Amino acid sequence: MGKIHSIESMGLMDGPGIRMVVFFQGCPLNCSYCHNPDSQKMCGGIEMTSDEIVKRAISLKPYFRDNGGVTISGGEPLLQADFLIEVLKKLKKEGIHTALDTSGYGDINKFEEILEYTDLVLLDIKHFDEISHKKLTSHSMRIPNKFIKYLIKTDTKVWIRHVMVPTFTDNKYSMYGIFKRIEPLIKQIEKIEILPYHTMGVEKYKKLNLDYKLKNILPMDKDIAKHYENILLNMVQYSRQRIMQ
Asked: 105 to each of 47, 87, 139, 187, how far by Cα in Å?
């Protein structure tokens, strides 16, 4: 039995094709820009069995076609590692493509088994600097870096994601810092996404009577975010070409 925040039946943004996106409840991080603060605590959400989730996924298989599948997101799905493994195993048994949307923060002892049943990792890079990472998430990069080390040992495909917040990482120096952090995954990276910071979650903080740490930060300009995405992508492509020579 696991805690689920919500399920999206026809997702188009969280992996290839049409996907069922299962949002796990609970997250150990406390990201300043989190737009779903209601998904952080384990006391929320609804309880579901792995069979219930897989049954719903099977009913959607006609829509998945050749490139769709199921994406497990959050919250942070690694927080419910045993339940996550249970769901992933059953999905793979049904021939369903699996994607894991994660920041890499969870039980290190479970990483290897989780990745065994994961076709694609949507890896959320919060920051490249330890001090800034702690300031942004209230946690160290130590465990996410461990996850990357386990990920390198697999042939799992990777999409890199980074939420760009104005005055935080909207500069070339930060793109280089992120590049150096993801460079060990160079052969596995299929896609890079710079997601522009937005303020759509501010109202949730007000309703929950929570302090929003970035209240004075304006939304990230989408064109500028795309510009830096291209810079990071060029770094990755250049590095990959050098390896292949």
From this structure: 22, 18, 9, 22
- In terms of Cα–Cα distance, which of 139, 244, 233 is closest to 192? 233
Q: Tell me 25's DSSP state.
A: S
What is the C-alpha separation between 123 and 237, in angstroms, rounded? 18
The DSSP line for 50-108 is: HHHHHHHHHHTHHHHTTT-EEEEESS-GGGGHHHHHHHHHHHHHTT--EEEEE-S-S-G
- What sign does the CA torsion over 155, 156, 159, 163 have? negative
Maximum CA pair distance of the chain?
A: 56
Helices 172-182/222-244 angle, 10° precision: 40
Domains of the chain, with CATH numbers?
Answer: 2-244 (3.20.20.70)
Q: Whole-model pTM? A: 0.94
Q: Do the beta carbons of residue 194 and residue 164 sit within 8 Å?
A: yes
Q: Under DSSP, is residue 206 helix (H, G, I), strand (E, B) or coil?
A: helix
pLDDT digits (tens, 9 = 90+) for 46-82: 999 999 999 999 999 999 988 999 999 999 999 999 9
Joined together, the tokens standing for residue 44 give 């929320």
Positive or negative torsion for Cα 98, 101, 105, 106: negative
Q: Report the phi/psi class of residue 102: left, alpha or beta, with left for phi > 0 and alpha for psi in -120 to 50.
A: beta
The amino acid present at 214, given as its one-letter code, is: L
SS3 call for 44? coil
Six-digit token string for 11 = 């997702």
Gap between the Cα atoms of 134 and 203, Å rounded: 25
